[in-house]
Design a protein that fits this description.
283 residues; three-stranded mixed β-sheet; 10 helices
Length: 283
């Protein structure tokens, strides 16, 4: 984060107990249900789901009950040419039929519906995961995300965005090729990257934006060769926040838009980014 946690005022308004009953079961806070897909499902199915808006997909055994791993749009981009998983792609005749088990992330910590919100917050902090599988009597029951925790900030905190933001973030420039930005996202583990021109924010791009571009142009199998400028694929409708805004405003925007990272702008100039992770670590 741009400012170390210890710099925050003692007793600041971000502490979890100021906003929620810390003993409440996490299962009562999760909205909606996220069904998994079996580990032998083809990657093409996962791509279809990502294009429908599912950035994080739980992977199960064939019965649909036992959790096996997690698949994200970034993992798919990795496989298509953004990272080391592309080595698997190169060995397959029909790469999009490869089982999702070859691409998913394993060893993800699990939480139970009855675990309290405080313990889940601690797991998020310890693991650095954006989402965790939610179990019920040993069976997959959905996923819990950072947003499920931080959206319980419902009153002003007294903490400003500039106090938690990451200043001088990694950015993509409008002229950067799609293939290069894909590598940046995968290897850096970024959720989204601000796109700038001469320091001014012009858009934002994530793995799912690049997947949508590749799919709509019939280029899913040719990411490595794609040199089109990233501004042709980025999202131009960017939700941002000002540095002096209360953290409450940033959390509300993340929750409403379903995103976990916001650019921080001052007079249209990008000066930082604020993420759900930044907020979680200060709670």
């Amino acid at each position: 984060s741009g400012l170390m946690f210890g710099f925050l005022r003692r007793g600041h308004g971000l502490f979890l107990e100021n906003h929620a009953d810390t003993e409440m079961p996490i299962g009562e806070l999760v909205r909606g249900v996220s069904h998994g897909i079996p580990e032998d499902a083809p990657l093409s199915l996962a791509i279809f789901l990502c294009l429908r808006g599912y950035r994080i997909i739980p992977i199960t055994d064939r019965s649909g009950n036992e959790f096996r791993g997690m698949l994200t749009s970034r993992n798919i981009l990795d496989f298509l040419g953004g990272g080391n998983l592309h080595q698997i792609y190169l060995t397959k005749k029909d790469a999009l039929k490869v089982h999702v088990s070859k691409v998913m992330e394993r060893g993800i910590a699990q939480v139970d519906r009855n675990d309290n919100i405080r313990s889940v917050l601690d797991i998020f902090r310890h693991t650095g995961e954006e989402a965790l599988p939610l179990m019920n009597n040993g069976k997959l029951d959905g996923i819990v995300t950072e947003i499920d925790v931080i959206r319980h900030i419902r009153k002003p905190t007294g903490v400003r965005v500039w106090e938690l933001m990451t200043s001088k973030p990694v950015v993509a420039r409008t002229e950067h090729p799609v293939s290069d930005v894909a590598v940046m996202i995968v290897r850096g583990g970024y959720r989204r990257l601000p796109v700038v021109r001469e320091g001014f924010l012009t858009g934002i791009v994530g793995a799912s934006d690049i997947l949508k571009y590749l799919h709509s142009n019939g280029k899913l199998c040719s990411l490595k060769k794609d040199r089109i400028e990233i501004e042709k694929t980025m999202n131009r409708f960017v939700e941002s926040v000002r540095p002096e805004a209360d953290i409450l405003e940033a959390v509300r925007k993340m929750d409403e838009k379903g995103v976990t990272l916001l650019p921080v702008v001052d007079e249209y100039q990008l000066i930082g980014v604020i993420s759900g992770r930044d907020v979680l670590e200060a709670m």
